[in-house]
Amino acid sequence: MAPHKAPDASRRSDRSRRAIYDAALALVGENGYRRTTIEGIAARAGVGKQTIYRWWPSKAAVLMEAFLDLAARAAEQAVPEGAAVSQGGGEYGIPDTGDLAADLKLVLRATVDELNDPLMEAPTRALTAEGIVDAKLGAEFIEKLLDPQLALYVTRLRAAQEAGHLRADADPRIALELLIAPLTHRWLLRTLPLTHAYADTIVDYALGGLTPRP
């Protein structure tokens, strides 16, 4: 008789954690942040709510970790060719091919694809909306997800300044807002389609300006 093999506790924990992530994201997309509960997440995931409370102190903590995991997986699937993996886990640097416009267009196109992805869109909208009225959640969303992503733009824009491809007196943080804000505005309002062509135009306008040149 073959010896009895003990269950792999770590594998079981990984499966449970993944089920909780998926349940939390599905429910916040279906019902919104406020109507999503620990009890509901536990029921959808097929685990006891004690399991959730053993790993996370609150619903916000569950959803934030689930969303960060989703964003990391999306980045791994959509990493642009030539981009370098950072040490932060799941984040990718903006490629530096020497062509600033082409590099920014590549990354903004990937952002468009991410925002249009149904798996990302619903939880992103729910957490964005709740972050506006819940200052603590909004601050955590910015600190853990938004700021690390924006820092990648700052790094690339500073490299462009050093190479003489961007005005030396330009503030990289303001410059990146010229790129990111239009995408976010169109996505939030859903007024017009969010497309690659739109992303390319944003880069052209931001780098080239709108006034005629001599």
Structure explained in plain terms:
70% of the residues lie in helices and 0% in strands. The chain is mostly helical. The longest helix is centred in the last third of the chain and has 28 residues, at 135-162. The chain contains nine helices and no strands. It has a domain at 64-208: Tetracycline Repressor, domain 2 (Orthogonal Bundle), CATH 1.10.357.10. The model is unreliable at 1-8 and 82-91 (pLDDT under 50). It holds the Pfam family TetR_N.
Keywords:
mainly alpha; Tetracycline Repressor, domain 2; 9 helices; single chain; 70% helix; 214 residues; elongated; disordered N terminus
Strand content: under 5%
The beta-strand count equals 0
Label the CATH architecture of one domain: Orthogonal Bundle
The CATH class of one domain, by name, is Mainly Alpha
Poorly predicted ranges = 1-8, 82-91
Radius of gyration: 20 Å
Derived from helix and strand composition plus strand pairing, the structural class reads: mainly alpha
Outline of this structure?
With 214 residues, the chain is mostly helical.
List the helices and strands and how they pair.
Blueprint: H1 9-31, H2 38-45, H3 49-55, H4 59-77, H5 100-116, H6 118-133, H7 135-162, H8 172-189, H9 196-208
